[in-house]
Amino acid sequence: MCGIVGIVGFVPINQSLYDALTVLQHRGQDAAGICSIDKLNCFRLRKANGLVKDVFKKKHLKYLKGNIGIGHVRYLTAGSSSSFEAQPLYVNFPYGITLAHNGNLTNASELRNSLFKNNRRYIDTTSDSEVLLNIFAQELSLFKDNALLQSNDIFKAVNSVHQRIRGGYAVVSMIIGHGIVAFRDPNGIRPIVLGKRILIDGRIEYMVASESVALDTVGFEFIRDIEPGEAVFINQKGQLFANQCAKNPKKNPCLFEYVYFARPDSFLDKISVYSARIRMGTKLGKKISCKWKHLNIDVVIPIPETSNEIALEIAHVINKPYRHGFVKNRYIGRTFIMKGKNLRNIALKHKLNVNRTEFINKNILLVDDSIISGTTSIKIIEMARKAGAKNIYFASASPEIRFPNFYGINMPSSTELIAYGRKLEEIRKILKADELIFQDLNDLIEAVREENKDIVKFECSVFDGIYITKDIDKEYLSKYKTD
Protein backbone atom coordinates (compact mmCIF):
# COMPACT_ATOMS: atom_id res chain seq x y z
CA MET A 1 0.00 0.00 0.00
CA CYS A 2 1.35 3.41 -0.98
CA GLY A 3 0.16 6.99 -1.35
CA ILE A 4 0.32 8.94 -4.60
CA VAL A 5 -0.38 12.56 -5.53
CA GLY A 6 -0.07 14.75 -8.61
CA ILE A 7 -0.74 18.46 -9.24
CA VAL A 8 -0.93 20.56 -12.40
CA GLY A 9 -0.99 24.21 -11.36
CA PHE A 10 -0.05 27.76 -12.21
CA VAL A 11 1.83 28.50 -9.00
CA PRO A 12 4.68 26.56 -7.34
CA ILE A 13 3.41 23.19 -6.12
CA ASN A 14 6.32 22.01 -3.94
CA GLN A 15 4.66 22.92 -0.63
CA SER A 16 1.29 21.51 -1.69
CA LEU A 17 2.86 18.19 -2.69
CA TYR A 18 4.75 18.04 0.61
CA ASP A 19 1.61 18.78 2.63
CA ALA A 20 -0.40 16.20 0.69
CA LEU A 21 2.22 13.50 1.26
CA THR A 22 2.28 14.35 4.96
CA VAL A 23 -1.41 13.51 5.35
CA LEU A 24 -0.93 10.36 3.24
CA GLN A 25 1.94 9.21 5.47
CA HIS A 26 -0.29 6.50 6.96
CA ARG A 27 -0.19 4.75 3.59
CA GLY A 28 3.59 4.32 3.62
CA GLN A 29 6.46 4.92 6.01
CA ASP A 30 9.38 3.35 4.13
CA ALA A 31 10.26 6.11 1.66
CA ALA A 32 9.02 9.34 0.10
CA GLY A 33 9.65 11.20 -3.12
CA ILE A 34 8.63 14.25 -5.16
CA CYS A 35 9.41 15.04 -8.79
CA SER A 36 8.61 18.37 -10.43
CA ILE A 37 9.21 19.93 -13.85
CA ASP A 38 10.97 23.32 -13.89
CA LYS A 39 10.76 26.16 -16.43
CA LEU A 40 13.51 24.54 -18.53
CA ASN A 41 11.41 21.38 -18.87
CA CYS A 42 13.77 19.38 -16.69
CA PHE A 43 12.89 16.92 -13.94
CA ARG A 44 13.75 17.93 -10.38
CA LEU A 45 13.68 14.85 -8.17
CA ARG A 46 14.16 14.25 -4.47
CA LYS A 47 13.50 10.85 -2.92
CA ALA A 48 14.92 8.82 -0.05
CA ASN A 49 14.04 6.28 2.62
CA GLY A 50 12.24 7.70 5.63
CA LEU A 51 9.21 9.74 6.62
CA VAL A 52 8.12 12.78 4.64
CA LYS A 53 9.36 15.21 7.29
CA ASP A 54 12.80 13.60 7.26
CA VAL A 55 13.20 13.22 3.50
CA PHE A 56 12.32 16.82 2.62
CA LYS A 57 14.11 19.71 4.25
CA LYS A 58 13.83 23.38 3.32
CA LYS A 59 16.66 23.14 0.78
CA HIS A 60 14.95 20.22 -0.96
CA LEU A 61 11.64 22.06 -1.30
CA LYS A 62 13.47 25.07 -2.75
CA TYR A 63 15.08 22.75 -5.30
CA LEU A 64 11.74 21.25 -6.34
CA LYS A 65 10.72 24.18 -8.52
CA GLY A 66 7.83 24.17 -10.95
CA ASN A 67 4.07 24.29 -11.25
CA ILE A 68 3.59 20.61 -12.04
CA GLY A 69 4.71 17.58 -10.05
CA ILE A 70 3.94 14.19 -8.53
CA GLY A 71 4.73 12.60 -5.18
CA HIS A 72 4.78 9.22 -3.47
CA VAL A 73 4.99 7.64 -0.02
CA ARG A 74 6.11 4.04 -0.09
CA TYR A 75 5.00 1.00 1.83
CA LEU A 76 7.12 -1.88 0.61
CA THR A 77 5.03 -4.67 -0.94
CA ALA A 78 7.26 -5.59 -3.88
CA GLY A 79 10.95 -5.03 -4.56
CA SER A 80 13.73 -4.23 -2.12
CA SER A 81 14.03 -1.62 0.63
CA SER A 82 16.81 0.21 -1.23
CA SER A 83 16.30 3.96 -1.55
CA PHE A 84 17.08 3.44 -5.25
CA GLU A 85 13.61 1.89 -5.54
CA ALA A 86 11.90 4.83 -3.85
CA GLN A 87 9.44 6.55 -6.17
CA PRO A 88 8.82 8.41 -8.42
CA LEU A 89 10.81 6.40 -10.97
CA TYR A 90 11.70 7.77 -14.40
CA VAL A 91 12.85 6.92 -17.93
CA ASN A 92 14.18 9.17 -20.69
CA PHE A 93 12.71 7.41 -23.74
CA PRO A 94 10.57 8.08 -25.70
CA TYR A 95 9.89 11.13 -23.55
CA GLY A 96 10.97 12.11 -20.10
CA ILE A 97 8.45 10.10 -18.08
CA THR A 98 8.21 9.73 -14.31
CA LEU A 99 5.72 7.55 -12.47
CA ALA A 100 4.39 6.78 -9.00
CA HIS A 101 2.30 3.69 -8.31
CA ASN A 102 0.10 2.28 -5.56
CA GLY A 103 -0.63 -1.44 -5.79
CA ASN A 104 0.92 -4.63 -7.14
CA LEU A 105 1.15 -6.30 -10.54
CA THR A 106 0.45 -10.02 -10.41
CA ASN A 107 2.22 -10.72 -13.72
CA ALA A 108 5.30 -8.57 -13.09
CA SER A 109 7.77 -11.45 -13.60
CA GLU A 110 6.57 -12.37 -17.08
CA LEU A 111 6.35 -8.71 -18.06
CA ARG A 112 9.93 -8.13 -16.90
CA ASN A 113 11.16 -11.03 -19.03
CA SER A 114 9.13 -9.89 -22.01
CA LEU A 115 10.43 -6.33 -21.84
CA PHE A 116 14.02 -7.52 -22.03
CA LYS A 117 13.52 -10.30 -24.54
CA ASN A 118 11.35 -8.41 -27.02
CA ASN A 119 12.28 -4.79 -26.51
CA ARG A 120 15.70 -4.82 -24.83
CA ARG A 121 14.36 -2.75 -21.97
CA TYR A 122 16.43 -3.59 -18.92
CA ILE A 123 14.63 -3.36 -15.58
CA ASP A 124 17.18 -2.11 -13.09
CA THR A 125 15.24 -2.85 -9.87
CA THR A 126 13.05 -5.60 -8.44
CA SER A 127 10.14 -3.15 -8.26
CA ASP A 128 6.99 -3.90 -10.24
CA SER A 129 6.53 -0.13 -10.47
CA GLU A 130 9.54 0.07 -12.77
CA VAL A 131 8.00 -2.68 -14.89
CA LEU A 132 4.77 -0.68 -15.12
CA LEU A 133 6.70 2.49 -16.02
CA ASN A 134 8.51 0.74 -18.86
CA ILE A 135 5.31 -0.85 -20.17
CA PHE A 136 3.71 2.61 -20.26
CA ALA A 137 6.79 4.13 -21.89
CA GLN A 138 6.86 1.38 -24.48
CA GLU A 139 3.22 2.01 -25.42
CA LEU A 140 3.87 5.77 -25.67
CA SER A 141 6.84 5.09 -27.94
CA LEU A 142 4.37 4.01 -30.63
CA PHE A 143 3.54 7.72 -30.98
CA LYS A 144 7.16 8.93 -31.04
CA ASP A 145 6.65 10.55 -34.47
CA ASN A 146 4.24 12.97 -32.85
CA ALA A 147 6.12 16.01 -31.57
CA LEU A 148 3.27 16.62 -29.16
CA LEU A 149 1.22 13.77 -27.77
CA GLN A 150 -2.51 14.24 -28.06
CA SER A 151 -4.88 13.14 -25.30
CA ASN A 152 -6.17 10.33 -27.51
CA ASP A 153 -2.61 9.03 -27.95
CA ILE A 154 -2.20 8.84 -24.20
CA PHE A 155 -5.56 7.14 -23.75
CA LYS A 156 -4.63 4.55 -26.39
CA ALA A 157 -1.39 3.88 -24.51
CA VAL A 158 -3.26 3.41 -21.21
CA ASN A 159 -5.71 1.09 -22.96
CA SER A 160 -2.79 -1.08 -24.09
CA VAL A 161 -1.29 -0.99 -20.59
CA HIS A 162 -4.56 -2.28 -19.15
CA GLN A 163 -4.50 -5.15 -21.62
CA ARG A 164 -0.93 -6.13 -20.75
CA ILE A 165 -0.78 -5.83 -16.98
CA ARG A 166 -2.83 -7.48 -14.23
CA GLY A 167 -3.31 -6.68 -10.58
CA GLY A 168 -4.48 -3.75 -8.49
CA TYR A 169 -3.02 -0.36 -9.30
CA ALA A 170 -3.54 3.38 -9.17
CA VAL A 171 -0.97 5.36 -11.15
CA VAL A 172 0.09 8.96 -11.58
CA SER A 173 2.63 9.73 -14.30
CA MET A 174 4.22 12.93 -15.54
CA ILE A 175 5.39 13.43 -19.13
CA ILE A 176 7.76 16.31 -19.84
CA GLY A 177 6.26 18.86 -22.21
CA HIS A 178 2.80 17.35 -21.87
CA GLY A 179 1.37 17.04 -18.36
CA ILE A 180 0.11 14.48 -15.89
CA VAL A 181 -1.87 11.31 -16.55
CA ALA A 182 -3.55 9.28 -13.83
CA PHE A 183 -5.27 5.93 -14.24
CA ARG A 184 -6.83 3.14 -12.20
CA ASP A 185 -7.00 -0.62 -12.70
CA PRO A 186 -10.12 -1.96 -14.49
CA ASN A 187 -11.40 -3.53 -11.25
CA GLY A 188 -11.01 -0.32 -9.27
CA ILE A 189 -9.15 -2.14 -6.49
CA ARG A 190 -6.87 0.70 -5.49
CA PRO A 191 -8.37 4.18 -4.91
CA ILE A 192 -7.58 7.49 -6.61
CA VAL A 193 -9.56 10.74 -6.56
CA LEU A 194 -9.65 13.97 -8.57
CA GLY A 195 -9.92 17.53 -7.28
CA LYS A 196 -9.64 21.15 -8.37
CA ARG A 197 -8.58 24.50 -6.93
CA ILE A 198 -9.78 27.81 -8.40
CA LEU A 199 -7.27 30.65 -8.20
CA ILE A 200 -8.25 34.27 -7.62
CA ASP A 201 -7.90 35.02 -11.34
CA GLY A 202 -10.29 32.18 -12.19
CA ARG A 203 -7.73 29.68 -13.46
CA ILE A 204 -8.27 26.07 -12.37
CA GLU A 205 -5.56 23.81 -10.97
CA TYR A 206 -6.09 20.05 -10.81
CA MET A 207 -4.92 17.41 -8.38
CA VAL A 208 -5.12 13.61 -8.11
CA ALA A 209 -4.43 11.67 -4.93
CA SER A 210 -4.95 8.32 -3.24
CA GLU A 211 -7.45 9.77 -0.76
CA SER A 212 -9.73 12.80 -0.60
CA VAL A 213 -8.10 13.95 2.65
CA ALA A 214 -5.04 15.00 0.62
CA LEU A 215 -7.24 17.32 -1.44
CA ASP A 216 -8.79 18.83 1.68
CA THR A 217 -5.42 19.59 3.25
CA VAL A 218 -4.10 21.72 0.38
CA GLY A 219 -7.33 23.51 -0.46
CA PHE A 220 -8.54 21.47 -3.40
CA GLU A 221 -12.22 20.69 -3.88
CA PHE A 222 -13.14 17.05 -4.38
CA ILE A 223 -14.63 16.48 -7.85
CA ARG A 224 -15.02 12.72 -8.03
CA ASP A 225 -13.31 9.34 -7.88
CA ILE A 226 -11.43 8.29 -10.98
CA GLU A 227 -13.43 5.34 -12.27
CA PRO A 228 -12.06 1.80 -12.70
CA GLY A 229 -10.18 1.58 -16.00
CA GLU A 230 -10.44 5.33 -16.54
CA ALA A 231 -7.56 7.67 -17.38
CA VAL A 232 -7.43 11.40 -16.69
CA PHE A 233 -4.96 13.61 -18.56
CA ILE A 234 -4.23 17.19 -17.49
CA ASN A 235 -1.96 19.05 -19.87
CA GLN A 236 0.47 21.75 -18.83
CA LYS A 237 -2.06 24.42 -19.83
CA GLY A 238 -4.40 23.09 -17.18
CA GLN A 239 -6.88 21.46 -19.58
CA LEU A 240 -8.45 18.24 -18.35
CA PHE A 241 -9.40 15.25 -20.50
CA ALA A 242 -10.90 11.96 -19.31
CA ASN A 243 -11.57 8.67 -21.07
CA GLN A 244 -12.58 5.12 -20.22
CA CYS A 245 -9.62 2.99 -21.33
CA ALA A 246 -10.75 -0.51 -20.32
CA LYS A 247 -13.17 -2.79 -22.16
CA ASN A 248 -15.14 -4.19 -19.25
CA PRO A 249 -14.45 -2.12 -16.12
CA LYS A 250 -15.93 -3.23 -12.81
CA LYS A 251 -15.97 -1.47 -9.49
CA ASN A 252 -14.46 -3.88 -6.95
CA PRO A 253 -12.69 -1.64 -4.41
CA CYS A 254 -10.49 -3.16 -1.73
CA LEU A 255 -12.56 -3.79 1.40
CA PHE A 256 -9.50 -3.55 3.64
CA GLU A 257 -9.07 0.13 2.69
CA TYR A 258 -12.14 0.92 4.78
CA VAL A 259 -11.16 -1.38 7.65
CA TYR A 260 -7.59 -0.22 8.14
CA PHE A 261 -5.65 1.74 5.55
CA ALA A 262 -7.66 4.84 4.70
CA ARG A 263 -7.96 7.80 7.04
CA PRO A 264 -11.39 8.18 8.66
CA ASP A 265 -11.82 11.66 7.17
CA SER A 266 -11.47 10.35 3.61
CA PHE A 267 -14.18 9.48 1.11
CA LEU A 268 -13.45 6.58 -1.25
CA ASP A 269 -15.86 5.59 -4.02
CA LYS A 270 -18.55 7.84 -2.51
CA ILE A 271 -18.22 6.17 0.90
CA SER A 272 -17.21 7.95 4.08
CA VAL A 273 -14.53 5.84 5.77
CA TYR A 274 -15.58 7.23 9.16
CA SER A 275 -19.26 6.36 8.63
CA ALA A 276 -18.33 2.91 7.35
CA ARG A 277 -16.39 2.23 10.55
CA ILE A 278 -19.30 3.42 12.67
CA ARG A 279 -21.53 0.93 10.86
CA MET A 280 -18.94 -1.81 11.39
CA GLY A 281 -19.31 -1.11 15.10
CA THR A 282 -23.09 -1.22 14.85
CA LYS A 283 -23.04 -4.60 13.10
CA LEU A 284 -20.50 -6.09 15.50
CA GLY A 285 -22.27 -4.62 18.54
CA LYS A 286 -25.53 -6.27 17.50
CA LYS A 287 -23.76 -9.59 17.05
CA ILE A 288 -22.22 -9.34 20.52
CA SER A 289 -25.52 -8.34 22.16
CA CYS A 290 -27.24 -11.32 20.50
CA LYS A 291 -24.73 -14.18 20.44
CA TRP A 292 -22.44 -13.11 23.28
CA LYS A 293 -24.89 -11.56 25.73
CA HIS A 294 -23.73 -13.98 28.43
CA LEU A 295 -20.43 -12.10 28.69
CA ASN A 296 -20.23 -9.88 31.73
CA ILE A 297 -18.48 -6.95 30.04
CA ASP A 298 -17.49 -4.06 32.29
CA VAL A 299 -15.88 -1.75 29.75
CA VAL A 300 -15.15 -1.47 26.00
CA ILE A 301 -11.60 -0.44 25.10
CA PRO A 302 -10.30 0.25 21.57
CA ILE A 303 -6.81 -0.52 20.38
CA PRO A 304 -5.97 2.89 18.95
CA GLU A 305 -6.54 4.40 16.57
CA THR A 306 -8.28 2.79 13.62
CA SER A 307 -10.74 0.97 15.89
CA ASN A 308 -11.74 3.98 18.03
CA GLU A 309 -14.95 4.77 16.14
CA ILE A 310 -15.82 1.08 15.91
CA ALA A 311 -15.39 0.48 19.65
CA LEU A 312 -17.36 3.60 20.55
CA GLU A 313 -20.32 2.38 18.51
CA ILE A 314 -20.08 -1.13 19.98
CA ALA A 315 -20.19 0.37 23.48
CA HIS A 316 -23.28 2.37 22.52
CA VAL A 317 -25.05 -0.70 21.09
CA ILE A 318 -24.32 -3.02 24.04
CA ASN A 319 -24.81 -0.17 26.56
CA LYS A 320 -21.43 -0.45 28.24
CA PRO A 321 -18.87 2.24 29.15
CA TYR A 322 -16.30 3.23 26.50
CA ARG A 323 -12.84 4.01 27.82
CA HIS A 324 -9.36 4.68 26.50
CA GLY A 325 -7.32 1.99 28.21
CA PHE A 326 -4.27 2.51 26.00
CA VAL A 327 -2.42 5.77 25.60
CA LYS A 328 -0.78 6.11 22.21
CA ASN A 329 2.53 7.75 21.45
CA ARG A 330 1.68 9.59 18.23
CA TYR A 331 5.30 9.78 17.17
CA ILE A 332 5.50 6.05 16.46
CA GLY A 333 4.39 4.82 13.03
CA ARG A 334 1.81 2.17 12.20
CA THR A 335 3.13 -1.17 13.41
CA PHE A 336 1.36 -3.35 10.84
CA ILE A 337 3.35 -1.77 7.99
CA MET A 338 6.65 -2.29 9.77
CA LYS A 339 8.78 -5.19 8.59
CA GLY A 340 9.44 -8.12 10.92
CA LYS A 341 7.91 -9.30 14.18
CA ASN A 342 10.78 -8.07 16.35
CA LEU A 343 10.57 -4.55 14.93
CA ARG A 344 6.79 -4.48 15.39
CA ASN A 345 7.10 -5.71 18.99
CA ILE A 346 9.69 -3.08 19.87
CA ALA A 347 7.61 -0.36 18.20
CA LEU A 348 4.47 -1.52 20.03
CA LYS A 349 6.15 -1.17 23.43
CA HIS A 350 6.98 2.43 22.62
CA LYS A 351 3.67 3.08 20.87
CA LEU A 352 1.15 2.00 23.52
CA ASN A 353 1.05 2.24 27.29
CA VAL A 354 -1.76 0.97 29.51
CA ASN A 355 -3.98 3.19 31.63
CA ARG A 356 -4.09 0.74 34.56
CA THR A 357 -7.18 2.20 36.22
CA GLU A 358 -9.30 0.95 33.33
CA PHE A 359 -8.08 -2.66 33.64
CA ILE A 360 -7.75 -3.58 37.29
CA ASN A 361 -10.19 -6.37 38.19
CA LYS A 362 -12.44 -5.70 35.17
CA ASN A 363 -13.86 -7.79 32.34
CA ILE A 364 -12.55 -6.02 29.27
CA LEU A 365 -13.82 -6.08 25.68
CA LEU A 366 -10.84 -5.12 23.53
CA VAL A 367 -11.70 -3.99 20.00
CA ASP A 368 -9.34 -3.92 17.04
CA ASP A 369 -9.91 -3.35 13.34
CA SER A 370 -8.40 -6.72 12.37
CA ILE A 371 -6.11 -9.55 13.41
CA ILE A 372 -3.44 -10.37 10.85
CA SER A 373 -0.37 -12.20 12.14
CA GLY A 374 -1.60 -12.03 15.73
CA THR A 375 1.74 -10.64 16.95
CA THR A 376 0.30 -7.29 18.02
CA SER A 377 -2.86 -8.82 19.48
CA ILE A 378 -0.88 -11.27 21.64
CA LYS A 379 1.24 -8.46 23.08
CA ILE A 380 -1.77 -6.24 23.75
CA ILE A 381 -3.63 -9.01 25.56
CA GLU A 382 -0.49 -9.67 27.58
CA MET A 383 -0.31 -5.97 28.50
CA ALA A 384 -3.96 -6.01 29.59
CA ARG A 385 -3.36 -9.08 31.79
CA LYS A 386 -0.37 -7.45 33.48
CA ALA A 387 -2.47 -4.34 34.07
CA GLY A 388 -4.88 -6.43 36.16
CA ALA A 389 -7.73 -7.36 33.79
CA LYS A 390 -9.91 -10.18 35.10
CA ASN A 391 -11.22 -11.46 31.75
CA ILE A 392 -10.24 -10.30 28.27
CA TYR A 393 -12.66 -10.60 25.39
CA PHE A 394 -11.22 -9.69 22.02
CA ALA A 395 -13.37 -8.45 19.11
CA SER A 396 -12.22 -7.87 15.53
CA ALA A 397 -14.14 -5.48 13.28
CA SER A 398 -13.23 -7.64 10.29
CA PRO A 399 -13.49 -11.39 9.67
CA GLU A 400 -10.61 -13.82 9.96
CA ILE A 401 -7.80 -12.95 7.53
CA ARG A 402 -6.96 -16.35 6.10
CA PHE A 403 -5.47 -15.66 2.67
CA PRO A 404 -2.55 -13.69 1.20
CA ASN A 405 -3.06 -10.46 -0.73
CA PHE A 406 -1.48 -9.70 -4.11
CA TYR A 407 -2.98 -6.33 -4.89
CA GLY A 408 -0.91 -3.98 -2.75
CA ILE A 409 -1.13 -5.17 0.86
CA ASN A 410 1.91 -6.86 2.33
CA MET A 411 0.30 -10.22 3.17
CA PRO A 412 2.09 -12.45 0.67
CA SER A 413 2.46 -15.57 2.79
CA SER A 414 -0.50 -17.49 4.16
CA THR A 415 1.67 -19.08 6.86
CA GLU A 416 2.22 -15.63 8.41
CA LEU A 417 -1.52 -15.27 9.05
CA ILE A 418 -2.75 -16.48 12.42
CA ALA A 419 -6.15 -17.54 11.02
CA TYR A 420 -4.72 -19.54 8.11
CA GLY A 421 -5.86 -23.18 8.48
CA ARG A 422 -7.09 -22.63 12.04
CA LYS A 423 -10.51 -22.71 13.68
CA LEU A 424 -11.78 -19.99 15.99
CA GLU A 425 -10.90 -21.86 19.18
CA GLU A 426 -7.34 -22.50 18.00
CA ILE A 427 -6.86 -18.80 17.28
CA ARG A 428 -8.28 -17.86 20.67
CA LYS A 429 -5.85 -20.15 22.48
CA ILE A 430 -2.86 -18.70 20.64
CA LEU A 431 -3.96 -15.18 21.49
CA LYS A 432 -4.70 -16.25 25.08
CA ALA A 433 -8.01 -14.37 25.03
CA ASP A 434 -10.93 -15.55 27.17
CA GLU A 435 -13.31 -15.11 24.23
CA LEU A 436 -12.72 -14.18 20.59
CA ILE A 437 -15.28 -12.54 18.31
CA PHE A 438 -14.96 -11.80 14.59
CA GLN A 439 -17.19 -9.70 12.35
CA ASP A 440 -19.13 -11.67 9.72
CA LEU A 441 -18.01 -10.94 6.14
CA ASN A 442 -21.53 -10.19 4.93
CA ASP A 443 -22.01 -7.72 7.78
CA LEU A 444 -18.71 -6.01 6.95
CA ILE A 445 -19.64 -5.71 3.28
CA GLU A 446 -23.07 -4.30 4.09
CA ALA A 447 -21.59 -1.84 6.57
CA VAL A 448 -19.26 -0.43 3.91
CA ARG A 449 -21.55 -0.43 0.87
CA GLU A 450 -24.55 1.18 2.59
CA GLU A 451 -23.62 4.60 1.16
CA ASN A 452 -22.97 3.28 -2.34
CA LYS A 453 -25.25 0.47 -3.41
CA ASP A 454 -23.75 0.63 -6.91
CA ILE A 455 -20.84 -1.39 -5.58
CA VAL A 456 -21.96 -4.97 -6.04
CA LYS A 457 -18.71 -6.67 -5.11
CA PHE A 458 -15.62 -5.73 -3.12
CA GLU A 459 -12.12 -7.15 -3.42
CA CYS A 460 -12.19 -9.42 -0.36
CA SER A 461 -9.43 -11.92 -1.14
CA VAL A 462 -7.82 -11.77 2.32
CA PHE A 463 -11.12 -12.95 3.78
CA ASP A 464 -12.59 -15.29 1.16
CA GLY A 465 -9.61 -16.30 -1.01
CA ILE A 466 -11.35 -15.15 -4.20
CA TYR A 467 -8.99 -13.23 -6.49
CA ILE A 468 -10.93 -11.11 -8.94
CA THR A 469 -8.10 -10.91 -11.49
CA LYS A 470 -8.57 -14.69 -11.91
CA ASP A 471 -4.84 -15.33 -12.31
CA ILE A 472 -3.97 -16.51 -8.80
CA ASP A 473 -3.88 -20.30 -8.84
CA LYS A 474 -2.26 -22.98 -6.66
CA GLU A 475 1.03 -22.70 -8.54
CA TYR A 476 1.11 -18.94 -8.01
CA LEU A 477 0.23 -19.29 -4.31
CA SER A 478 2.94 -21.93 -3.79
CA LYS A 479 5.63 -19.37 -4.65
CA TYR A 480 4.68 -17.35 -1.59
CA LYS A 481 4.49 -20.11 1.03
CA THR A 482 7.18 -20.19 3.67
CA ASP A 483 8.26 -22.87 6.10
TrEMBL record:
Its cofactor is Mg(2+). Transmembrane segments: none annotated. Keywords: Glutamine amidotransferase, Glycosyltransferase, Magnesium, Metal-binding, Purine biosynthesis, Transferase. The active site is at C2 (nucleophile). CDD domains: GPATase_N, PRTases_typeI. Residues 2-237 form the Glutamine amidotransferase type-2 domain. Catalyzes the formation of phosphoribosylamine from phosphoribosylpyrophosphate (PRPP) and glutamine. This is Amidophosphoribosyltransferase. It comes from Candidatus Pantoea edessiphila. The lineage of its organism: Bacteria, Pseudomonadati, Pseudomonadota, Gammaproteobacteria, Enterobacterales.
